[in-house]
Amino acid sequence: MGGGHDEPLGYLMHRVASVLRAEVSATALEPAGLSFPQYICMRILSRFPDRSNAELARDTGVSPQAMNMVLRSLEERGLVTRPDTVAAGRSLPAKLTRAGAKLLDSTETGVRAAEQRLMAGLSTEQRREFRSILAALGT
């Protein structure tokens, strides 16, 4: 395949995300007993505690049913907690437990190493620019 200069942006981003997901999963998450969806859910909760199941589903682009399965699996392991009931409404805010935050922190080195392997062919300036562009597009 060519350099991808004419490929749609969504396709190129999907290819990069797929390669990174596989590398992160194999080298950093699976050894910690986490799936990629669990990791993403935990990462979001570390930055935005008290997200509901529906909000997390929207954040990650999965169905509420799929996110509920992710949250239940994390709850069963004591990594996330949700109240049994809430005073108003139906949404149960989720938050990381101390054990969840500790496990998430323990994956950081492996996740960063996987990112470095993915970007090994880029210069330091290209890496910095790539991150900057992704951050700008994602806001």
TrEMBL record:
Give the matching PROSITE patterns. Answer: HTH_MARR_2
Q: What is this protein called?
A: MarR family transcriptional regulator
Which GO terms of type biological process are on file? response to stress
**HTH marR-type domain: from which residue to which, for each copy?**
6-139
Q: Which InterPro entries match?
A: HTH_MarR-typ, MarR/SlyA-like, WH-like_DNA-bd_sf, WH_DNA-bd_sf
Look up and give the organism this protein is from.
Answer: Mycolicibacterium aromaticivorans JS19b1 = JCM 16368
**In which domain of life is the source organism classified?**
Bacteria
**PANTHER family from the UniProt entry:** HTH-TYPE TRANSCRIPTIONAL REPRESSOR YETL, TRANSCRIPTIONAL REGULATOR, MARR FAMILY
A GO molecular-function descriptor? DNA-binding transcription factor activity
Q: Name one Pfam family in it.
A: MarR_2
